[in-house]
């Protein structure tokens, strides 16, 4: 059994706790022996309260420490670790491996998904991106990751940064386009509900077609009559600017083919 | 039985043919008596070939004619109709009802979904937006629409235009953000597959949370360290411009709250 400690109590930490708990019901690869949380009671609904600690000197000896805290707090956590030469990883998409404190063996355990506290996630479908400084540590990370997910990848820090930036486009920015769609509906007293099946199908299409193949719409068709009529319709300056820039980008992209 | 004729042979026409065929197996509301297609053989895999015509003077007497052709061709089709005072509707998101030829009773039958030719759609989930000039015609459209979809709405031309513009944001522009994500992955030799569960979850979240509640990411958090590092990372001018504009828009939006 690989003994694992999680440090942190936010969304990622909580989803990891649930994922390890579910995995332990199926197989005996990983034993989640402890979780560090400044506010211990925050995790009592998820794990046996005797396993939750809030003092660094209570940390037990483990094979793997997973730091699941915000990027700003990662260094602070590593500086509080009093032991040496153990395997310590973080869960961040953008924090480079070589900026971790080097008194321990360093690595990355990055689950690429958007986690909301009150929303369950099937962790077996969440891609986990792993990085380590040596092959032995990679084997440990790989076994732990595979105990909770079917989708495990070796990804170096530069690739991970690319993924993190790409994730901002397909997740945060996409959600903001949903927000604009919602605002346009509200301005014209149309229920946003009507757009939801289209949102679902747009995402599902991409599972079988490349985004280039899936691209449709007035910009792709260079349908200047519709584009001009949409631009005249948009009264919100911010919506109009984004409409123009993305329309132009899709048209330029079409010309590259 | 309401006798329906479809004019057109593209994606929307083909999906409507399949939807009516499936509906006819369940109930006897609608009888699809004819389809007009310039190339008759294009539809033989979908419908009894004797029902496919390619001459306007072969059009039978029907209760409803659905023109499912590109916006540019709608007027040309209506000018070729030799009968008068029958119910004639189009399926376009942006064509105003009062620009249709007024020798027939006018209406709109707009299914709001992205249709690809080789991809099945569960039409019962597709919202259909209806508009007519009088209540009697609306009842006909409503019965026909409800025979194929669970999701039917009365939407006037101005609201329909708002939906069409909003659909460009949540469908065409969102797909283009997927395309940028794909390009970033390719530039850094990372499989785009890794992002697919995130794309799915981003769309699914919006079914239960408003886009405002679902917004996450460095722009929402005003995390300037991450934003600057992403901007430095993006070498493609086009990607960088879109990153900056959407980041700024999300930050401005946050301030409005």
Automatic annotation (TrEMBL), chains A, B:
Stored Pfam families: DUF2520 (PF10728), Rossmann-like (PF10727)
Domain spans labelled Putative oxidoreductase/dehydrogenase Rossmann-like: 2-108
InterPro entries for this protein: 6-PGluconate_DH-like_C_sf, DUF2520, NAD(P)-bd_dom_sf, OxRdtase/DH_put_Rossmann_dom, TM1727-like_C_sf
Domain DUF2520: 126-249
Matching PANTHER family: CONSERVED HYPOTHETICAL ALANINE AND LEUCINE RICH PROTEIN
Name by which UniProt lists this protein: Rossmann-like domain-containing protein
Species this chain originates from: Flavobacterium segetis
Lineage, opening ranks: Bacteria, Pseudomonadati, Bacteroidota, Flavobacteriia, Flavobacteriales
């Amino acid at each position: 059994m690989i003994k694992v400690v999680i440090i942190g109590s936010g969304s990622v930490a909580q989803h990891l706790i649930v994922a390890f708990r579910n995995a332990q019901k199926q197989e005996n690869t990983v034993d989640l022996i402890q979780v560090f949380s400044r506010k211990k009671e925050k995790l009592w609904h998820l794990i046996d309260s005797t396993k939750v600690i809030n003092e660094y000197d209570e940390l037990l000896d483990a094979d793997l420490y997973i730091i699941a805290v915000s990027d700003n707090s990662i260094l602070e956590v590593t500086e509080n670790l009093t032991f040496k030469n153990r395997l310590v990883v973080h869960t961040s998409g953008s924090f480079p491996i070589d900026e971790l404190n080097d008194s321990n063996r360093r690595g990355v355990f990055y689950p690429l998904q958007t986690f909301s506290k009150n929303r369950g996630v099937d962790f077996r479908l969440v891609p986990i991106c792993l990085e380590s400084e040596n092959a032995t540590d990679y084997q440990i990370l790989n076994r732990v990751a595979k105990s909770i997910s079917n989708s495990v990848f070796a990804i170096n820090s530069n690739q991970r940064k690319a993924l993190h930036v790409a994730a901002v486009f397909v997740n945060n920015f996409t959600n903001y386009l949903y927000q604009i769609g919602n605002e346009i509906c509200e301005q014209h007293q149309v229920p946003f509900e009507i757009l939801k099946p289209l949102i679902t199908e747009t995402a599902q299409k991409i599972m079988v077609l490349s985004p280039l193949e899936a691209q449709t719409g007035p910009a792709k068709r260079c349908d200047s009559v519709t584009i001009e009529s949409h631009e005249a319709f948009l009264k919100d300056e911010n919506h109009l600017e984004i409409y123009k820039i993305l329309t132009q980008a899709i048209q330029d992209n079409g010309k590259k083919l």
